[in-house]
Amino acid sequence: MSSMKAPCSPEQRPVTALRGVGEALAERLRRLGVAQVQDLLFVLPLHYDDRTTLKKVRELSLGERVLVEGEVQLTQVVYRRRRQLESRIWDGSGFLTLRFFHFSGSQEKGLARGTRVRCFGEVRRGPSGFEMIHPEYRWVGRADEQVEDTLTPIYPLTEGLSQGKLRALIAEALRELDTAAVRDWIPAQVSESLDLPPLREALRYVHRPPREAQVEELAAGRHPAQRRLAFEELLAHQASLRLLKRAAKTDPAWPLDDSAAMAARLLAALPFPLTGAQARALAEVEADLRSSVPMVRLIQGDVGCGKTVVAAAAAARAVGSTAPDAPEERFQAALMAPTELLAEQHWRNLDQWFRPLGLDVALVTGSQPARTRRSALEAVANGDIRIIVGTHALFQEGIEFSRLALVIVDEQHRFGVQQRLRLREKGNKLGRFPHQLIMTATPIPRTLAMTAYADLDVSVIDELPPGRTPVRTVVVPQERRDEVVARVEQACRGQRQVYWVCPLIEESEELRSQAAEESAAALAEALPEVQVGLVHGRMPPAKKDAAMLAFKAGKIQLLVATTVIEVGVDVPNATLMVIENAERMGLAQLHQLRGRVGRGAEASTCVLLYRGPLSPLARQRLQVIRETSDGFEIARRDLELRGPGELLGTRQTGLAQLRVADLTRDADLLPRVQEAAELLIAQYPDNIAALAARWIGTAEQYGRVG
Ligand code: ADP
Ligand code: MG
């Protein structure tokens, strides 16, 4: 294969080349995936605000985000459960209340009677008519100042980076668009047949949609400019994944014969027979393991379908095999989990299954005492221990194996292309590559799997073990929140445990975490006898794990969480889950979350709290999730329902970590993406590296693949 170095170009100008971008800001930008100036152009708006027209209060409708201008009639500090600032403005057509929970004295003074303010925010229903909570606002003079002439993009943020700052940086990057800074890597013969705008035009449009832009189309991600970018992103992934698979299949691996019949012994000792689907998946895995071409297989199966035991049987085959070049040596298998908690859970299971076969299983995590870890690592390095469970982080830090033949990755849905690339680099020893087995709990229809996992072979476990009690799902309007809280109390009093999942706020992890903190405080106040815990994305991992562990141990009865709560964690005593603002979440995410309950013998309930009025689509989605518990069926319905109209939640599934594209929404582009990928591989391999650098940020790794 030809050399895959990304052609050197102004595209590689680091973001620090921009005026006012120092190391600290560059670090924050890196968290958004921005390293080069051009990367800024590919940070795409989550949605748009229309600040091009002033609205009259009389014409407002609930839930819309609008620009309003009026004169302050009254500003006062009031106490309604907590201290807050209320300011009433009049715009000649009606009154609007601005409400602030965090405010300063000068802010209060600045909103004195008679002041004219222009504010932007979401229209909500308050105790006395329409209101906005924490609107953006500024003072305006009598003579109307001008309004914006393009729609205002709202970008995803990261801590320490404001919307204003990011907008300014992107504006600067946009100015560079006129120079040759950004190249179009899609060959003309492909773009001509696409009937989509050229790259520069597309970028300019998504960052600066004109006032008359089709807002619905944009919100739905269906505008040709967005589709042009989605196409390119899908192509970047598709082409690089295919290259990767090709390269992987040319590596040599150890064929694993399981001469000690370890897998059969493990299965025979289980207290249950495998389901048909488990047996099929295992047969596919075993066929791969017998070969000297490395396995790169994904097991897709719904939450609770029993992937772990299939992985364990694969590990048993590895450790039961003899190395042809050194008959006295045995192979090793490693299992990586995304968190310490999951690692420990897996270790318990594996230990219980392997101990009777006379095999020790080592656990390696960052939080165990250094001495324990060191001795475990030693035993792994000299081959005394042959089955190792640990966290992804640990494996990345470097751990020596004596003869690693199989790597198993349990990754519920965060395992993207980047991680898969890094994994491949591991364990290449004595010129042989370990077999790889990846487990994921995000069921997607087969056609999509072919795209999302183009570098993998896929096995599907589409059947749950018998005897599960299905989770009862109820849909409840926000107005009946008090009843739900009473239900939480009742469950806790009955020695049961409860998850409370906080609303999805797209803008930032910071806002999400703040909302979770507020919910936890409010619930703790309402339920003084209940032990309330909190997990959110901004907590350090150790603290998160500690809270999860306390929940698992029953020391916390009510766990308030953002959607970060661990997928895969088993707390059978948790029988109630409440999901706030369920109408804003995607089907896949709701399904994943719900999978946290219904893991014990007791019947479980999932309460989906929603804030009306529901759009017809949101209504249908809630109905699907209420009626169906089969992840594949849900994925199918999701694809059916996902027409234009909704964007929130779709990217959360994290499939291949796409930035603009959405595999379900953009499914109709896939056949042409496949064709284009073939063309690039055959004729323009260098463009693949450039596209990968732009969209995946890993050009060097692709360089090494070739
Ligand atoms: P997941 O696929 O979500 O990782 P697990 O592997 O954690 O699911 O399995 C969920 C539970 O089902 C575990 O308690 C496991 O022991 C049990 N289990 C797995 N396979 C079977 C089976 N064939 N029959 C009965 N129980 C099973
Ligand atoms: Mg699992």
Structure description:
The chain has 706 residues and is of the alpha/beta class. It has four domains: 10-48 and 153-213, no CATH class; 53-147, OB fold (Dihydrolipoamide Acetyltransferase, E2P), CATH 2.40.50; 251-461, Rossmann fold (3-Layer(aba) Sandwich); 472-628, 3-Layer(aba) Sandwich (Rossmann fold), CATH 3.40.50.300. The chain has 25 helices and 25 strands. The strands form five sheets. Strands 2, 3, 4, 5, 6, 7, 8 and 9 form an eight-stranded mixed beta sheet that branches. α19 links the parallel β22 and β23. α9 runs antiparallel to α11 and α10 packs parallel to α11 (307-319). The longest helix has 25 residues, at 224-248. The protein is globular, with a radius of gyration of 27 Å.
Features:
disordered N terminus, eight-stranded mixed beta sheet, binds adenosine-5'-diphosphate, 25 helices, alpha/beta, Rossmann fold, OB fold (Dihydrolipoamide Acetyltransferase, E2P), globular, 4 domains, 706 residues
